[in-house]
Write a structure and sequence with these properties.
By secondary structure, this protein is of the alpha/beta class. It folds into two domains: about 200 residues, Rossmann fold; about 250 residues, 3-Layer(aba) Sandwich (Rossmann fold), CATH 3.40.50.720. It is about 45% helix and about 15% strand. The strands form two sheets. It has an eight-stranded mixed sheet with strand order 3-2-1-4-5-6-7-8, sandwiched between helices. The longest helix is centred in the middle third of the chain and has 32 residues. The termini are far apart. The relative contact order is 0.08. It binds nicotinamide-adenine-dinucleotide (NAD). Nicotinamide-adenine-dinucleotide binds next to helix 5.
Amino acid sequence: MKKSILCIGAGYVGGPTMAVIASRCPQWNITVADISEARIAAWNSSDLPIYEPGLDEIVQKVRGKNLFFTTDIARGIRENDVIFVSVNTPTKTFGAGAGFAPDLQYWESTARAILEHAGNDKIVVEKSTLPVRTAEAMHRILDNNHKKLHFDVVSNPEFLAEGTAIRDLLDPDRVLIGTMPGPSGNRAGDLIASIYQNWIAPEKIKRTNVWSSELTKLAANALLAQRISSVNSLAALCEETGADIEEVAQAAGMDHRIGKAFLRAGVGFGGSCFRKDILHLVYLAEQCGLPEVATYWRGVVEINDYQQRRFVQRVMNALFHTLAGKRLAIFGFAFKADTGDTRESPAAAIAKMLLEEHAKLAIYDPKAMANARAELASYGDAVEFSNSAAEAARGAHAILILTEWAQFRDFDYAGFYQQMEKPAFLFDGRNLLDHQMLHKIGFTVCPVGRPTLSV
Ligand SMILES: NC(=O)c1ccc[n+]([C@@H]2O[C@H](COP(=O)([O-])OP(=O)(O)OC[C@H]3O[C@@H](n4cnc5c(N)ncnc54)[C@H](O)[C@@H]3O)[C@@H](O)[C@H]2O)c1
């Protein structure tokens, strides 16, 4: 077998994952292919299509040596025996299961392209997040071919988190490889494991059956999102009772069975995965005749939506029950720090709710301005895209912190305060800043799940 890999899908997963494999496996030649010419052109330029700390350096080291980006998918399929598929798997927006079920059209069209162009046996690796039993369906599509070719389908879900993708790929908690029963499936799994063994300890490479592997990815995202919704539901209780969510979460998290991670209250989770993966889980549970299971997981998404509505209501209440014509400075539009990605960003949902109330928004984000512009294009003059936080704050009634960028801590809030309408409000949707210090400056400070510091 040639030591060469094709990855179909040059997105947030395909690009960084293959760049890291190329950097750790110089003996493997890696081609990343995509139908989007613009994306491939960006990967081949000095202005990569996505922002991830450390990504530029790695791509610069390996691009043109053993990492290549192309739109020639057919050739990639012909020339590579190992094919990773990391195309998008969004939620269906039409027909049966709309709003819940995964839209598998990109995935299936990839499977059919592989079938059309393959001239020899292949190992097809599911990198995309897929519903349980997709590998089996894929195996059936691929293996029923008149060319008498053999295909092994391996599930190898990706657990990277945007913002820390390179770190996660270089030092993952685990790599999961799920294979179909039988010697051929095992051999395929061994080969994929041998790639990761170039830099990951064998005990971190977990082998399972293909169905467990597919379900684990959905389960991991559901469990992470559930922690966020749990802590946010408690934050709502804190705001009513005078308890402080930071103290509650810290003290509860000291129990080793609970743990500290992922217990930060805020405006909720975002990103392209959590919501869709939970809804796919809900759909799966319904399909399996388990409505109670579906209701349980649906609640995680509902609390997340509620948290965002609640935040907007708090802004409304504090600003004397009307936002019409008021300038609000939005600090942060990305769904989390250290990324420019705004897919399912709480900031985007909150911004749209504020605009429905006829607020005027001034948005500043260190990396997400292009995506913010695209997301809010239809709102015209009601939105200003500011070149700096100071520019956004000038003349504003309130500052809203919606992404936890560390650099927001270092801003000159006293200077901002001077330039704002009075009374000046600061809504810290991420509990990121020093609230006492802001209060001393003169702000009325409204954190999440903590008492308001009124002036
Ligand atoms: N973004 C994350 O943090 C993350 C983390 C883990 C897993 N995942 C999963 O990985 C998968 C990919 O996610 P992403 O964020 O990289 O998506 P993305 O939208 O950034 O990238 C997908 C790419 O696939 C391309 N594509 C679609 N159909 C194609 C086809 N038929 N042939 C060639 N290219 C095609 C698109 O043009 C796009 O560039 C999803 O299933 C997602 O759930 C994402």
